[in-house]
Write a structure and sequence with these properties.
This protein is mainly alpha-helical. It has a domain of 62 residues. The protein contains 15 helices and no strands. The longest helix is centred in the first third of the chain and has 45 residues. The protein is globular and about 60 Å long.
Length: 396
């Protein structure tokens, strides 16, 4: 595994240029965290050399085990690296601004023009199929830089199986770190892997305790929405999808919006150029208007800004610590497996809604061929536009 000893060199960039760079990333941030991370890697690692591949992988591994949207946290951290804490704030705001404005517009359109009309969710189906192709290509792009030996491949495959089995998110991450840290010591690796498997099986088959959200029809307040967002931001471990139950409990569970509307917000977040947790903005808008949307968004993204802006030096020390580098490489390999499992789960959920499976497969295969063969900023927006058109055709 590649190990970096290269010191961090701050890129030479002005604050306005930094904002515009990450604003551009935000405008092109389609396809969820996998595609967003691949875009950041391609531009800042492969093309501009802000940091090397090994360092980027370890940085990503650190943010995977911290709560919050990892792509946004990477932007904040890289902004701090470039121009200090002000740079981190500017980079983070630039990256999230396009998605925030689009989701606010989508919330307004939904509330004033579309709410209650049948077919709203199915109209997004074509775009969702295309997004699956974009994510699949991004998984391969990230995996080819991380899965560099048989131990990494084994960790990724094991993590994918663990994710399908419904084990807690932290278990494959911890297992990947331990196994790769001991890579080469076959007896130790086998022992750790066996213990992790037994623990996974034990946890999976524990009796399930159903937690039912009690409806609370009290008045919507900005403070309550901010706390709902903050709870989601602090508990978003292992990917943005883990924020869904917490935001749902504090919005749908209180009777502020319906499950159908909440799912529409998640569908919209999946196709906008933004971190997936931007679905909270939609929920906030439907529940509490513009002020409510801004309040829940502030709570959701506050931890993502805080970790790098407050603990930048400590995070850098973790990234550069020689004893932790192999463990972080194991975490990164585990993340590839978890993301792959999530992609399959999303594909299954999308397939359940199909009324024309053959047309959907043709659309997926065509989109995958385009994103695999062509590069450029136009590719993702073009295939998403084509997906939207195809979705309309399939629902006729």
């Amino acid at each position: 595994m590649e190990v970096s000893t290269q010191p961090v060199q701050s890129p030479s960039i002005t604050l306005p240029a930094l904002f515009l760079k990450f604003l551009r990333f935000g405008c092109l941030a389609f396809g969820g965290p996998v595609a967003q991370i691949a875009m950041l890697r391609q531009s800042l690692v492969e093309e501009e050399g802000w940091l090397d591949r090994a360092r980027f992988n370890r940085l990503l591994a650190v943010f995977q085990i911290l709560p919050g949207p990892e792509a946004h946290e990477l932007c904040v951290h890289l902004g701090v690296m470039a121009r200090g804490r002000v740079g981190g704030l500017i980079a983070g705001l630039g990256f999230m601004l396009p998605g925030l404005l689009l989701m606010l517009a989508a919330g307004w359109i939904y509330v004033t023009l579309i709410a209650g009309h049948l077919g709203w969710s199915t109209a997004l189906l074509g775009i969702q199929i295309v997004v699956l192709a974009v994510i699949l290509r991004a998984v391969f792009r990230i995996g080819e830089h991380i899965l560099e030996d048989r131990f990494c491949w084994a960790i990724a495959i094991g993590s994918a199986v663990a994710a399908f089995a419904g084990t807690p998110f932290w278990l494959p991450l911890a297992g990947g770190a331990l196994i790769y840290a001991c890579a080469g010591r076959i007896g130790t690796v086998v022992c750790i892997a066996s213990l992790m498997l037994l623990l996974a099986i034990s946890i999976h088959y524990l009796p399930n305790v159903e937690i039912v959200a009690v409806a609370d029809t009290t008045r919507v307040t900005s403070a309550a929405l901010f706390i709902a967002g903050l709870k989601g931001g602090l508990l978003t471990f292992g990917g943005a999808y883990t924020a869904i139950p917490y935001v749902r409990a504090d919005t749908v569970g209180r009777g502020w919006l319906s499950d159908a509307t909440f799912l529409d917000g998640i569908a919209l977040a999946g196709v906008l150029p933004a971190p997936l947790v931007i679905f909270a903005t939609f929920a906030g808008y439907v529940a509490g208007g513009l002020v409510g949307a801004l309040a829940i968004t502030a709570g959701m993204f506050l931890p993502a800004f805080a970790f790098s802006m407050i603990f930048y030096e400590r995070l850098e020390a973790v990234i550069e610590h020689p004893a932790l580098q192999r463990a972080l490489s194991g975490v990164a390999a585990s993340v590839v497996g978890i993301i792959s499992a999530t992609l399959v789960q999303l594909s299954i959920a999308t397939a359940d809604r199909l009324t024309a499976p053959f047309l959907a497969f043709v659309l997926f295969a065509t989109a995958l061929l385009i994103v695999w063969r062509f590069k450029g900023t136009w590719v993702t927006p073009a295939v998403l536009a084509a997906g939207a058109f195809a979705g309309v055709i399939m629902t006729l």
